[in-house]
């Protein structure tokens, strides 16, 4: 996981160990295993928070000396929802069950930029384009961060969800994030919107809808 703001949020929810990573620097089995060993807990819940880390996390669970269970969070918003669902007074299996349910309730979005010319399906994307994704599906391509983010938010809220959370990234100012939040509240009346500093590189915004 990358982003100092996101790391603080996870720690505030009781997460003991955070392994830095991202889209292009996923942690190894050795790094995850070292993190598991550093924890004082008798058993460990792993939140991959990235579909590309899921297999590695499951391999760690297979070879770990202490009990490890993997909650299959495929995005950071799913991981945050799972962490919120954790209860110390529940058993390991019961926590896994409730945390998986929490992941399933979340729709995840991201707004980033293209570093090179590419093609997504039948859509041509040029270097420098702002790219908006919702649950792995391309939603919007443009040159305006706010417009692309709004398109992603609309898609995430289209299934009757009403709580939208924005995590603004490294390179986005608080003023820019506040302006976007106010514009979304005006454009999408009736929603509940929360705004947090994520500090993540590469992504202007991460979005979560429930």
Automatic annotation (TrEMBL):
- One Pfam entry for this protein is FakA-like_C
Return the SMART domains for the record: Dak1_2
Which ranges carry the Fatty acid kinase subunit A-like C-terminal domain? 2-210
Write down the InterPro entries for this protein, in alphabetical order: DegV_domain_contain (IPR050270), FakA-like_C (IPR033470)
- Mind telling me which PANTHER family this protein's record contains? DEGV DOMAIN-CONTAINING PROTEIN DR_1986-RELATED (PTHR33434), PHOSPHATASE PROTEIN (PTHR33434:SF4)
Identify this protein by name.
Answer: Fatty acid kinase subunit A-like C-terminal domain-containing protein
Which species is this record about? Geochorda subterranea
């Amino acid at each position: 996981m990358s982003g100092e703001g996101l790391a603080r949020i996870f720690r505030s929810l009781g997460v003991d160990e955070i392994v830095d990573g991202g889209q292009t620097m996923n942690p190894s089995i050795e790094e995850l295993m070292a993190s598991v060993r550093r924890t004082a807990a008798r058993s460990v819940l792993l939140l991959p928070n990235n579909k590309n880390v899921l297999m590695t996390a499951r391999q760690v669970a297979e070879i770990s000396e202490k009990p490890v269970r993997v909650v299959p969070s495929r995005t950071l918003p799913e991981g945050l929802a799972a962490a919120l669902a954790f209860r110390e007074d529940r058993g390991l299996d019961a926590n896994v069950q409730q945390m998986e349910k929490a992941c399933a309730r979340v729709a995840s979005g991201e707004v980033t930029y293209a570093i090179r010319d590419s093609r997504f399906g039948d859509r041509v994307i040029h270097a420098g384009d702002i790219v908006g994704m919702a649950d792995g599906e391309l939603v919007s391509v443009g040159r305006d961060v706010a417009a692309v983010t709004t398109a992603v938010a609309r898609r995430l809220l289209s299934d009757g969800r009403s709580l939208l959370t924005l995590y603004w990234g490294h390179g986005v100012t608080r003023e820019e994030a506040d302006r976007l939040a106010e514009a979304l509240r005006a454009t999408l009346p009736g929603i509940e919107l929360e705004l947090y500093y994520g500090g993540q590189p590469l992504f202007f915004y991460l979005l979560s809808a429930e």
